[in-house]
Amino acid sequence: MLNFEFKNPTKIIFGKNTIQQLPNQLPSDAKVLLIFGGGSIKKNGIYDEVKAALANFEVFEFGGIPANPEYEILVQALEIIKKENITFLLAVGGGSVIDGTKFLSSATLFSGDNPWDILEKGIRTDVGLPFGTILTLPATGSEMNSGAVISRRSTQQKLGMGGPGLFPQFSILDPKVIQSIPKNQIANGIVDAFTHVLEQYMTYPTHANLQDRFAESILQTLLEVGPIVQENPFYYEAAADFMWSCTMALNGLIQKGVPTDWAVHAIGHELTVFFGIDHARTLAIIAPSHYRYNFEAKKAKLAQCAERVFNIHTGSIEEKAVACIEQFEQFFHKLGIQTKLSEYTEDYLGTAERIEARFTERGMLGLGEHKNIAPSDVRQIVSMSY
Ligand code: NZQ
Ligand code: ZN
Q1: Global model pTM greater than 0.85
Q2: End of a domain among 151, 176, 201?
Q3: Is 179 helix (H, G, I), strand (E, B) or coil?
Q4: Which domain holds residue 93?
Q5: What is the pLDDT of residues 286-317, one digit of tens each?
Q6: Ligand nearest to the CA of 37
Q7: CA 155, CA 167: separation in Å to the nearest integer?
Q8: Do 112 and 135 fall into the same domain?
Q9: Cβ(160) to ligand 1 under 6 A?
Q10: Rounded CA separation 31/57 (Å)
């Protein structure tokens, strides 16, 4: 096991009807900016519930944060925060709204002239404006981590940011919110969380037995309850398992003491930028090719996953590892998620070369747990996923 430090200060309030507990989590004199997305919360009743809970607070609103939160829109919210002297941000939404709120938390206290520098220059956020979240879509884990991913369409960029100042003060997780999520978005959530586990597990053995088993148990739980919640989002117990699995997949716990990969995400973000493909679907496109291309480096963990997660006990290490990748693909297909780029766009030729060029230009010269996946390797991985 590698050395590590672990601190996660986010308070989780989990369970049925927990949105009612919102007033107790806010400073009594908070001047709140309620931040939300394209309007789903107005249709499913969450907006009304939140507004009722905020009855005794001074509340401003900013709606319209799009999926893959957009910088040009976020800077409009930044103006309101500064003009109205907002003291607390409340994100009500999925990963996009929460990530957008993290950007605003950071940008409000940023001393530089251009907030885009936080992303482009990779400036870490040590202190941000306090914020909390009410999660409406289990998927990203953003509700209990300190990272965010922000897009800028004008420059075709999708970049990450983070720092210890960007943990939510609290996150309210009521599994009933999944009742109104469309089937395709539930599938996205399952695949995103599943791949988060893989990015932190599918590397090489480091004798981190507890972390491995945490990771395997999240995979097993998602395999078990994913298709159930997709079929019946009103089944509360399965919804609760699904929601908590997504949070646990990326709240820092399973990555401690182990090597991590994250190449699938880095490449996947480019497919969102180029084609607007949903985040989770980009992962389903890239992950199988990534594991096939880096087979030798990853086969021990792939075989371990085959045995412990998929109960495949016959065959050589290589055969088990191959079977494991096939199981991933079958699971994604079962959820209705396609795993080839050509199934999403006819315009895929040349994508591999474009991503290779962008990674070279940005100096992303060594991805993966061994930092040895060069842009030319990325080109081959992307070509394999056509
Ligand atoms: O915008 P509204 O109207 O709210 O609709 C949303 C959106 O269209 C809808 N939705 C959310 N909750 C709903 C609902 N519809 C009905 N009922 C509900 N209860 O779902 C759509 C997608 O929402 P979005 O927030 O975009 O999805 P997700 O949670 O998958 O977030 C994706 C973003 O998070 C980033 C991704 O790159 C992407 O930008 N990620 C953030 C990470 C992090 N901060 O740690 C890690 C991830 O790997 C990921 O990169
Ligand atoms: Zn993800």
Answers
A1: yes
A2: 176
A3: helix
A4: 11-176
A5: 999 999 999 999 999 999 999 999 999 999 99
A6: 1
A7: 28
A8: yes
A9: no
A10: 7
